[in-house]
Specification:
This protein is α/β, with parallel strands linked by helices. Helix content is about 35%, strand content about 20%. The chain is built from six helices and seven strands. Strands 2-1-3 form a three-stranded parallel β-sheet, with helices on both faces. Strands 4-5 form a two-stranded antiparallel sheet. Strands 6-7 form a two-stranded antiparallel ribbon. The chain is globular.
């Protein structure tokens, strides 16, 4: 099996973490006789610094034509005062939208050996094993209108969802629940 992987190290701790993830991929692929075509591309703050935009066209095209995308962290304080479209995080929204990545799966599980490491009481966290399904491309992410009034005494951030956006993320959540313990909350 051969897979093309677009690797986006990002900035901050992203490159350090992604470098280790790539090493794990290489070891796993070798063990299971997979061939990986791994290419790195710019995203986030490093892309802003080098080419002036957080999600270069070359990066987006590579992601769209790859079998998988390995994405590192983006964002750093030096970009906080940039306009929204020139912040590193704008790349994440553009990438999600282009790839149709509308659902974020956030597992939370406590292993018995780690119960004493929690800030919560053991009786509260014992047995925790849940999956939070979060919508990623509708609502506040892309809602319009948004921004400040000219006098900056009013701010607006519109949250709008279509029936289709709700149905598709609910379907992901229901299917995930069915595959787990058939319990939904």
């Amino acid at each position: 099996m051969r897979s093309k992987i677009a690797v986006l190290p990002g900035d901050g701790i992203g490159p350090e973490v992604v470098a280790q993830a790539v090493q794990v991929l290489k070891i796993a692929s070798g063990r299971f006789n997979h061939e990986l075509d791994i290419q790195e591309y710019l995203i986030g703050g490093i892309a802003l610094d080098r080419v002036g935009v957080p999600l270069p066209a070359e990066t987006l095209e590579a992601c769209l034509s790859s079998d998988a995308v390995l994405l590192g962290a983006v964002g750093a304080p030096q970009y906080d005062d940039n306009p929204p479209h020139l912040k590193p995080e704008a790349a994440l929204l553009g990438l999600r939208k282009a790839l149709g990545a509308f659902a974020n799966l956030r597992p939370a599980k406590i292993y018995p050996a780690l119960i004493s490491s929690s800030a919560l009481k053991p009786e509260v966290v014992r047995g925790t094993d849940l999956l939070i399904v979060r919508e990623l491309t509708g609502g506040l992410y892309f809602g319009e209108p948004r921004g400040f009034s000219e006098t900056r005494d009013e701010a607006r951030n519109t949250m709008t969802y279509t029936v289709g956006e709700i149905e598709r993320v609910a379907t992901v959540a229901f299917e995930a629940a069915r595959k787990r313990r058939r319990r939904l909350r």
